[in-house]
Amino acid sequence: MNGGRIVVVNTLGGALRHYAAALVASFGSDDVRLLAVDEPSVAGGSGLAWLGRTLRALVRARRLGGRVVVTWPVLGHLDRVLLRLVLGAKVDAALVVHDPRPLVHARGYGAGARWLGRFLGGSVRMIVHSEQAADALREHCPGDEPVLLPHPVAPRSESSRRPPASARPVVRVLGQYKPDRDVALLVALAARLGDTHLLEVVGRGWPPVAGWSVRDAFVDEAELDDLIVTADAVLVPYRRFFQSGVAIRSLELGTPAVGPADSSMADLYPDDRFLADGSVDSWCRAVERAAGASRSDTVALARAADERARGAWRTEYAVP
User: In angstroms, how far is the first alpha carbon of the chain from the final one?
Assistant: First the structure.
C-alpha cells in the first residue's frame, strides 16, 4: 500500500477518544490527521444529527486528501456505501468493525445492509481486532476478507499506579451491564473468593449480584482510570465478546485484566497467565495470579502489545 497522509475519522468522539489517540500514535507518522465527531450522548441531539456531523467530517477528510480510517460504523455495513459515495471511488478507505454481532441493538447489520455494503461499498476494507471478529465477518459477509490488525495500546507511566485502599485484593468489574455479562459466574466466584478478596461492580444498569458490592452508575473517563489503578485485578465476565476496551485500558494502566482464554484477550497475554478456560476453578486461579502480579511485569506486557500494534499498523499502511 502506498504511503502518504492518513485521516482518522473518529465517529464516537466521546466513547472512543482514547482509542483514536492510541490509533494515531500507532501509525508513528507526522502526517496523520484526526477528525472527531461527537455522538448524541456527548453532543446531544438525534441520531440523524450525528449522521450529519459524520458526513461533514467525511467531506473534510476528502478535502484533506489521503487514506481514511473510520473508527466506528454509524450505520453498520451501510457505512461502506456512505464512505464510497462521499469519498469517491479512488480513495483508500477502511472501516473498523469492533462488534460484527453487536451485543445491543444497532442499525445496519441485517442481511440487506450486509449485501448493500458489499455490493456498493465492497472496496472499503473492514478492519477487525480479533480472530473471533474476523470469523464472524467472514460468516456474515461471504467473499469479504477482513483485515486483522491489533487493537492500539497506549501504555501509561508505571508511576500512575496507586496502591489499593483495601487490605484485601480488590477485584472490579467495570462498564455497562449487557445481557452477555456472565452473572452466574460472578456469583460462583463470590462464593469462592468473597472472604479473601474485595469484589466490586461499577457500571450503568447492573442488577444486584450476590456476593458483590454493586454500584449502578455511569463512569466517566477520569473515574474509570481511577477505578482501574486502585484495583488489583479487573474482571471481564462476558459470555461472548469481540474486544474489551476495559481490558485494554487496564493493561495500559498496569492492572491485569482477567478474562476467557478463547477470546481476544489472548492477544494481550500470550502466556495465558490471567486467562480462564471456562471452569470456576480456572477463573479463581486467574484472579489470584492477577491480584498477585508484579506491576512492572504488567507494564512490560502493555509495552509489548503496543509494539506489536505499531508494527502491524505501520506495515499495513506502509509507514516507515
Answer: 12
- Rounded CA gap, 271 and 165, in Å? 29
What CATH superfamily classification does 158-303 receive? Answer: Glycogen Phosphorylase B; (3.40.50.2000)
Alpha-carbon torsion, ordered 257, 253, 101, 20, to 10 deg: -170
Question: Structure pTM?
Answer: 0.87
What whole-number distance in Å separates Cα of residue 24 and Cα of residue 7?
9
8 Å CB contact between 84 and 117: no
**3-state secondary structure (DSSP) of residue 243:** coil
Instruction: Please tell me the class of the 6-149 domain.
Output: alpha beta
78: pLDDT confidence band, cut at 50, 70 and 90?
very high
Two domains, one topology: 6-149 and 158-303: yes
Residues 243, 233: Cα–Cα separation, whole Å: 18
Residue 102: Cβ within 10 Å count: 15
Distance CA 165, CA 163 (A): 6
Q: What are phi and psi of 198, to 5 degrees?
A: -90, 115
Where is average pLDDT lowest: 68-77, 94-103, 202-211, 302-311? 94-103
For the chain, give every domain's residue range.
6-149, 158-303
Cβ-based neighbour number of residue 232 at 10 Å: 23
- Cα distances (angstroms) measured from residue 243 to each of 103, 127, 248, 268: 11, 13, 9, 11
Task: Give the Å distances, CA to CA, from 66 to 3, 6, 138, 151, 253.
Answer: 9, 5, 28, 22, 33
